[in-house]
Amino acid sequence: MKRMLSGIKPTGQLTLGNYIGALKNFVAYQDDYEMIVFIANLHCITEYQEPKELSRNLTDAIALYLACGLDPVKSTIFLQTDVHAHAELGYIMACNTYLGELNRMTQFKDKSAKGEKNMTAGLYTYPCLMAADILLYDANYVPVGEDQKQHVELTRDLAQRMNNKYGEMFTVPEPLVAKVGARIMSLQDPSKKMSKSDETNKGCIYLLDDLKTVRKKIMSAVTDSFADIKLDKINQPGLYNLIEIASALTGRPMQEIADEFHGQGYGVLKGYVADVVCAEMEKIQNNYREIMDSHKIEEVLALGAKKASAIADTKLDLVKRKIGLEIIY
Ligand code: AMP
Ligand code: TRP
Predict the structure, then answer these.
(1) CA pair distance 247, 228, nearest whole angstrom
(2) What is the CATH number of domain 3-177+295-323?
(3) Residue 251, φ and ψ in degrees, nearest 5
(4) Confidence band of 328 (pLDDT split at 50, 70, 90)
(5) Does 3-177+295-323 match 211-289 in CATH topology?
């Protein structure tokens, strides 16, 4: 069975974008692949997080993983800091990454271009840690949203470089970006990604938003003044985004949805999208509440850490041996 690995960085509440672009796919893949998913808590602190809030977000994220249908028996689910090999291999990867490569990473470039002050060294070397996350497990595939593809491509380069330099040690992974839903846009500004750090809060649906709020956000989504429902990403990006959300959640082709609502008002389409989103979220939120009331989270994390460490520690030992870090008696 091929192995698949992915992570989410809960620097805030998980969003509908995370669900459609990542989580939902993890759940679908767990029957056909050996699935490893983790909470990338080390990645969270590349920017300051209020400690109590961070801790709450981590708990919520694990609970939401389970609520969305990840099964701890089929999949390995763990917290990054529970497996020490990540930080250690992350450092080794940083020593095999060139500054030029890190300078080219769009996530970092965008932040510097915005003139953000106080950017940390951790933010800069984040792709090295991400490469370690992936390579420790010899993952064949890494399902991610569009924005993370570049990081997986760098991981491929680093894996190949180290295999050439030190002898075969890593599987070269492939990014897996879904055709529909890989980039869900803000409901208030369809030129921007739906993101946890949405300033207005209206453009982003959080998985734990109450359903009335969700409906309101969708009904007031920014569209256009063409008054004509068509699938036109360039000229009608807001509408396109709403149709993409509904398509990702129902599995119906986008064109079929656009055709069904052609000739009707935007409000009717928005009502349909709200129904679809709320139905899915209601199930997730019910599961979430049940999980939070149980002691399941601790058990899941303990089991996950044990399964993940067994793989990661063996790989780290091999890497250290190959690069000559160990003293051999
Ligand atoms: P992050 O929240 O940045 O840790 O992202 C976790 C996963 O969700 C990554 O695979 C992202 O690519 C994906 N993701 C985040 N936001 C979106 C979005 N708006 N649309 C689709 N995928 C997303
Ligand atoms: N960088 C990813 C994000 O922000 C999260 C992440 C960390 C990840 N390590 C990973 C995703 C390894 C896939 C594989 O979304």
Answers:
(1) 19
(2) 3.40.50.620
(3) 80, 5
(4) confident
(5) no
**How would CATH label the architecture of 211-289?**
Orthogonal Bundle (1.10)
Please, what's the b/e burial string for 153-182 (b: 16 or more CB within 10 A of its CB; e: otherwise)?
ebbbebbeebeeeeeebbbebbbbbbebbb
Question: Which residue owns the Cα nearest ligand 1 atom 18?
Answer: 17
Cβ contact 14:60 at 8 Å: yes
Domain boundaries, given as residue ranges, for the chain: 3-177+295-323, 211-289
Alpha helices in the chain (DSSP H): 16-18, 24-29, 41-44, 51-67, 85-94, 99-103, 106-113, 121-135, 149-166, 211-219, 237-250, 254-261, 266-293, 296-323
Choose among 66, 72, 57: nearest CA to 11. 57
Distance 196 CA to ligand 1 centre (A): 9
Which tokens go with 312?
């990661």
Question: 145 CA to middle of ligand 1, Å?
Answer: 5
- Residue pLDDT, tens place only, 232-250: 999 999 999 999 999 999 9
Residue with tokens 């004509």: 228
Q: Any idea how long the chain is?
A: 329
Q: Residue 311: pLDDT band by 50, 70, 90 thresholds?
A: very high
Cβ atoms of residues 308 and 35 within 8 Å? no
pTM over 0.85: yes
Q: Region 128-151: what's the mean pLDDT?
A: 96
Q: Report, as residue numbers or ranges, the catalytic residues.
A: 111, 193, 196
Mean pLDDT of 131-149: 95
